[in-house]
């Protein structure tokens, strides 16, 4: 049996369980772990355990937020992870033996090596060196590849029945100073990036536009099938535009204080799917009241 887990953040003070740290879960960790099991280890693993259904205290729950919590309400309430549960359904189908076509070389799962070496050997070797030597965050990630800086990740070619968007991100900058948090900053806070992470399942080739700033609202479509090109773009903030191949692909974009997570998927200059976090449910706050390195997850 192997396990996959999407996230880790816990924030208990000394008077409680005295657990206050994060693990780096950026770079679409949940997706990469699933695909590692499916594409590389599927003959070695019979059962996959998802960690977890309702461990709210460590922020890796994928079930609904209900019932008693272990005093984790400050960083859990309002941070739904149900979209991760939906995301898992795609990988469950791929993992089950009746959906597998044998070794990767004989199936329709073809990993395109878009900077994979950075996400495995070089990336994790550098991360271990930083943790051991207590280097600063800026020095540690200086050598990331241009692929990641441009917001593109790994891509898998596969059959997809429906266009889907998944997006998640944290609610404040990692360098932010909380106004009233007696527990203090979690250990490892410098390991994460102020970006939101996007996974797209596309039936056919398409294009994606990602942005964060709330003051750059475009004449975007509110319904599928509306022209996209009026949107391209009067904005001065950071935005990311990429081609999307058929299958599964991953992207990221910088989070902007006061903004949210916005993703538009288009095909032939027509919006076919879009996700926009509302300010009521998610805002990237410049000055948070308390530290919260949990993720908010949405989908469309």
Overview of the structural elements:
The protein is 18% helix and 24% strand. The strands form four sheets. Strands 5-6-11-8-7-14 form a six-stranded antiparallel beta sheet. A four-stranded antiparallel beta sheet has the order 10-9-12-13, with no helix packed on it. It has a two-stranded parallel sheet with strand order 1-4. The chain has helices at 29-39, 73-76, 82-95, 116-133, 137-140, 146-149, and strands at 2-4, 9-11, 20-22, 48-50, 110-112, 152-157, 164-169, 195-202, 206-211, 239-244, 247-254, 262-267, 270-276, 296-299. By secondary structure, it is an alpha+beta fold. The chain contains six helices and 14 strands. It has one domain (2-299). Keywords: Hydrolase. One of its GO terms (molecular function) is glucan endo-1,3-alpha-glucosidase activity. It comes from Pyrrhoderma noxium. Residues 121-152, 212-241 are annotated as: Disordered.
